[in-house]
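Long-time lurker, first post. I've been practising inverse folding by hand and with some scripts of my own, and I keep getting stuck on stretches where the structure tokens seem ambiguous. Below is the full token string for one chain I'm working on. Before anyone asks, I'm not after the true native sequence, just a reasonable design that respects the backbone. If someone could post their per-position residues I'd love to compare against what I wrote down in my notebook.
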């Protein structure tokens, strides 16, 4: 069984929570893109965990976790994340965590470059998390980065790093900054001692697992609208957030996911800048933000919130190739008497149902329909038929509008707070 769990919208849909739940049925969980720029929040019997880099299967004792070649890894951040989890009793060893030798290292100067660029952009900024992700992916495609495997061959490391530092200093000198070769080498040495034992060929592991009939869960970061090619440029991330990249980003380009579970939140949220047609402001917006606890897991930034956006969600389902969806945070909508749904966009006096080219989004107005609310706590309900009628109707309405079957519905952040639609 090969399944991908992906975000359908702007990210923060609750993928971590769903992967933590689903991981029980899989032998291996793989993170295949991104870095520590986003965070999954997982709550289970061991406590509350924020995972930026580690796959969400790390909280299950028998799961093998892989960080694939598609990822960019800040060694300091990863070391600290591992330490934080170990302090809470999570076991992390080279037996249950495997880091691809082809994953790219995010260096301190990538973070510095990200911050300098965001400062230069001032009011025009794109909402970078200042964690070096854009610069490191840029360098990757210029073939000017280090891979995790380079840590294993330290006889060649110094030559590689000195050329990179010389090149980067051409840029930094324009800002009156300079990076020192010795400090980069020291940084690499310090974290290499801790992380080298985890570095391996993840493709070999996955191929062997596939032959033995083991099951693999591919875990994505962010959502379809943040994809570098298919998202709302330039307000995207710098990697491919789509399910079709799962094999490539994991070390097995020849293996694509067989099923794709798209995660959709029962309403919308978006961190940072960029067009967000169904955004809600004022009292309703604040009510939803507070009820949903919509503050960034990685940065603490308040998230923008809005009605579920049907055109954007249909587009996300399409480009993700979702074979089913999971709706999260349905319990949060208990805060509204009536449930707003953005069913279409109004563009230049016409109603449109399809998600347009990003440059047109600023001209779109939301066309909102209201469905009856249920105004009662549903977080203890575990069966579809036990949901209030209005909640059932909301889910059936979404299924029809989105043209994709809903499989899971999450009604709380704890592992067991969910129900199956059928
Ligand atoms: P991810 O990056 O897609 O994993 O999403 P985040 O972790 O950034 O945001 C999801 C947040 O919602 C986390 O704090 C989860 O604990 C929480 N969460 C997930 N599903 C539910 C749900 O069904 N109900 C409630 N109340 N919280 C949820």
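-- Answer (accepted) --
I ran through it position by position. Result:
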């Amino acid at each position: 069984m090969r399944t991908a769990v992906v975000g359908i919208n702007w990210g923060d849909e609750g993928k971590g929570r769903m992967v933590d739940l689903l991981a029980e049925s899989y032998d291996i969980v793989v993170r295949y893109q991104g870095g520590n720029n986003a965070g999954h929040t997982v709550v289970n019997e061991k406590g509350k965990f924020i995972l930026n880099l580690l796959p969400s299967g790390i909280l299950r004792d028998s799961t093998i976790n892989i960080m694939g070649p598609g990822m960019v890894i800040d060694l300091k951040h990863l070391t600290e994340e591992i330490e934080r989890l170990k302090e809470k009793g999570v076991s992390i060893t080279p037996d249950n965590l495997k880091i691809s030798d082809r994953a790219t290292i995010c260096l301190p100067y990538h973070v510095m470059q990200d911050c300098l660029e965001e400062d230069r952009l001032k009011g025009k900024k794109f909402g970078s998390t200042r964690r070096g992700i854009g610069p490191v992916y840029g360098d990757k495609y210029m073939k000017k980065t280090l891979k995790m495997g380079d840590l294993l061959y330290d006889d060649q490391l110094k030559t590689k790093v000195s050329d990179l530092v010389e090149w980067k200093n051409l840029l930094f000198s324009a800002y009156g900054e300079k990076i020192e070769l010795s400090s980069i080498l020291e940084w690499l040495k310090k974290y290499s001692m801790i992380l080298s034992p985890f570095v391996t060929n993840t493709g070999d592991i996955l191929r062997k697992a596939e032959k033995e009939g083991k099951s693999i869960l591919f875990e994505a970061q962010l959502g379809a609208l943040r994809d570098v090619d298919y998202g709302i440029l330039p307000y995207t991330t710098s990697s491919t957030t789509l399910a079709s990249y799962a094999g490539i980003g994991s070390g097995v380009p020849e293996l694509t996911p067989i099923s794709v579970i798209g995660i959709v939140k029962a309403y919308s949220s978006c961190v940072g800048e960029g067009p967000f047609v169904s955004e809600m402001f004022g009292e309703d917006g604040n009510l939803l933000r507070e009820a949903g606890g919509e503050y960034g897991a990685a940065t603490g930034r308040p998230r923008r919130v809005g009605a579920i956006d049907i055109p954007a969600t249909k587009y996300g389902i399409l480009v993700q190739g979702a074979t089913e969806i999971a709706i999260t945070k349905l319990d949060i909508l208990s805060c509204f008497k009536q449930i707003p749904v953005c069913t279409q966009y109004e563009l230049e006096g016409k109603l449109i149902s399809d998600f347009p080219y990003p440059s047109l989004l600023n001209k779109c107005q939301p066309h909102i329909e209201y469905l009856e609310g249920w105004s009662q706590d549903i977080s203890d309900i575990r069966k579809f038929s036990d949901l209030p009628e209005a909640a059932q109707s909301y889910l059936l309405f979404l299924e029809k509008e989105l043209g994709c079957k809903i499989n899971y519905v999450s009604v709380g952040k704890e592992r067991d707070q969910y129900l199956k639609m059928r």
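A couple of notes from the structure itself: Residues 2-100+200-261 form a domain with the Adenylosuccinate Synthetase; Chain A, domain 1 fold (CATH 3.40.440.10). The chain has a mean pLDDT of 95. Happy to go over any region you disagree with.
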